[in-house]
Every structure is written in C-alpha cells, then in structure tokens.
C-alpha cells in the first residue's frame, strides 16, 4: 500500500504582475485505498496543487515536501513520478498530435512497467476497459485529446487510470462538463479502480455532484491556497447546503 505525504507545500507562479504565491502551506496525507475529495471555490489553487504534484514547470515549489512512500517526489522528473506510481489527470488535458490513444496507452504502460505488455493480454485489457467505459473501439485510433469532447477527455483519463494501475491518482475536475450519463460511467470507472486495486485517490472537484457516485472517505475544503477544514462525507453535504461563503470571510 502506498502513501502520499504533502507537507507544508508552498508554490508560486509567475504572472504579468509578478511572482504570486498560490499554495500557502498544504498538508495532506493520502494512503492507498483511501479517497480524498478536495473541494473549494474557483481560483483557490486546487489545480495548482495537482500541477505541483505533477511537476509542471510553471509552478515553482518554494517550500515543503511531497513524499511518495518516503521518496522525494519533488526531486523526480515527470517520467519518474509516473513510474513511481503517480497518475495525474489534468483539468485541461493537452492534445498529442499524431499519437493515437492506442499507441499513447501502450507507450505509457511500457514506460511505467519497464517492459512492454504482452500484446495478447494488452489488446484484451484495452478492449475490456473501453467496453467498461462504453467507448467506441474506433476511439483507440484517434489522436490523443484532438477534438475530444469534454466527456471523451474524461473517459480517456479513466481509461488511462484503469490500464496504468497507479498507486496514487490525482483527478482534477474529472466531473466537470459531464452530463449525468457520462458522470455515471466515469464514476463507475473510478469505483472499479478502487475495488480492483489499492489506489489512493485525490478527487479535486468544485461540485458535490460526483460525490454521490464516488464516495469519499475524507473531504477537505481548500481555500486560498491551503486546506481550511477537513472532515468525513458529511462535510460535502454541508458544503452543498451552505456553499463556501463561511470559509471566504477574511480569506
Ligand atoms: P482552482 O483550480 O482552485 O480553480 P487554480 O489553481 O487554477 O485554482 O488557480 C489558483 C490561482 O492561481 C488563480 O488566481 C489563478 O489565476 C492563478 N494561476 C494559476 N496558474 C496560473 C498561471 N499559470 N499564471 C498565472 N496565474 C495562475
Ligand atoms: Mg477552476
Ligand atoms: Mg482547477
């Protein structure tokens, strides 16, 4: 079982107005098998937290630590992070022109496992996962994220997660832009990963809607660059009823 430890994490970004601190001391521990919902208002820094963990060059880490099973994630290259078992699904996934979904997945799987998967099991696994996610087989031959609808992007993320079997997955607004049917399919994919593996999940979301389908063990309210409050699933219900107003006073 893996453990991701984020300790007093600080990060800045360069803006036209100068250096801006976005993460202001984030503390969070996620163990394998746990689902943590990170909820908060727009602009509070949730995506920045995901990018910081992913190693996005735009965000400078100015303090704190990120450890995966005791290893210093911040010292790892982006590839090393993936090989260590981290999976990051971004709010705005990038297009990869000229690379098909099928090739992308196989290359990623090979890089992460250190060897190519056997072709027979791989083809079967991809087909099974795509069936699970109600994806048309022709999707595998499309270029990554090129012209994907919102729902297709999110399904593609969950397809990756299902096939790459990470130990810790960060899902940034996987629910945004999904209709109810797509939300259910995507949520079922997350739940399958939870059932079949010991994955620990950081589920970043702006709305409580997805939490009807993916049950969190812990809910963290993220405001102004750090966690303002944590609790169990009942905290999500309270946020649904009350919104974030009471956290924004003085923030
Ligand atoms: P959230 O995901 O919670 O909506 P973000 O992490 O996207 O919040 O953004 C937090 C704050 O940091 C916002 O004020 C946003 O404008 C700013 N920010 C994030 N990334 C950048 C960037 N690359 N350049 C300038 N400002 C940024
Ligand atoms: Mg946002
Ligand atoms: Mg965001």
What's the arrangement of secondary structure elements?
Blueprint: E1 3-15, E2 18-31, E3 35-39, H1 46-54, E4 59-68, E5 71-72, H2 78-83, E6 86-89, E7 96-100, H3 101-113, H4 119-132, E8 143-144, H5 150-164, E9 168-172, H6 180-196, E10 200-205, E11 218-223, E12 226-231, H7 233-242, H8 245-248
Parallel strand pairs: 3-10, 3-11, 6-9, 9-10
Antiparallel strand pairs: 1-2, 1-4, 4-5, 7-8, 11-12
Helix pairs in contact: 3-5, 5-6
Residues 42, 47 line the site of one magnesium ion (MG).
Task: Provide a brief overview of the structure.
This protein is of the alpha/beta class. The protein has helices at residues 46-54, 78-83, 101-113, 119-132, 150-164, 180-196, 233-242, 245-248; strands at 3-15, 18-31, 35-39, 59-68, 71-72, 86-89, 96-100, 143-144, 168-172, 200-205, 218-223, 226-231.
Helical stretch tally: 8
The termini sit apart by 36 Å
Do you know the CATH architecture?
A: 3-Layer(aba) Sandwich
Helical amount among residues, as a percent range?
Answer: 25-40%
CATH class: Alpha Beta
Q: What structural category do the secondary elements indicate?
A: alpha/beta
Residues in β-strands, percent:
25-35%
State the low-pLDDT regions, or none.
none
- The sequence of SSEs as H and E is EEEHEEHEEHHEHEHEEEHH
Integer tally of domains: 1
Q: What is the CATH topology classification name?
A: Rossmann fold
Domain ABC transporter: 4-249
Protein name: Fe-S cluster assembly ATPase SufC
Pfam family, one: ABC_tran
Keywords: ATP-binding, Nucleotide-binding
């Amino acid at each position: 079982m893996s453990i991701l430890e984020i300790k007093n994490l600080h990060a800045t970004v360069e803006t036209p107005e100068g250096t801006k601190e976005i993460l202001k001391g984030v503390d969070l521990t996620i163990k394998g098998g746990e689902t943590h919902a990170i909820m908060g208002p727009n602009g509070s820094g949730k995506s920045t937290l995901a990018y910081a963990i992913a190693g996005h060059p735009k965000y400078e880490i100015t303090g704190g630590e990120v450890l995966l099973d005791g290893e210093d994630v911040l010292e790892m290259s982006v590839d090393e992070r993936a090989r260590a078992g981290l999976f990051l699904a971004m709010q705005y996934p990038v297009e990869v022109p000229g690379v098909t979904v099928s090739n992308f997945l196989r290359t990623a799987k090979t890089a992460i496992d250190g060897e190519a998967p056997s072709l027979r099991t791989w083809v079967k696994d991809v087909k099974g996962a795509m069936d699970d996610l109600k994806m048309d087989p022709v999707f595998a031959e499309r270029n990554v994220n090129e012209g994907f609808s919102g729902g297709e992007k999110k399904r593609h993320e969950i397809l990756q997660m299902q096939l790459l079997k990470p130990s810790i997955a960060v899902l940034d607004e996987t629910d945004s832009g999904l209709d109810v049917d797509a939300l259910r399919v995507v949520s079922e994919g997350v739940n399958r990963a939870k059932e079949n593996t010991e994955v620990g999940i950081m589920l970043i979301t702006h709305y409580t809607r997805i939490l009807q389908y993916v049950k969190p063990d812990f809910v963290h309210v993220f405001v102004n660059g750090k966690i303002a409050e944590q609790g169990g699933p009942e905290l999500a219900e309270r946020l649904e009823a009350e919104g974030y107003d009471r956290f924004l006073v003085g923030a």
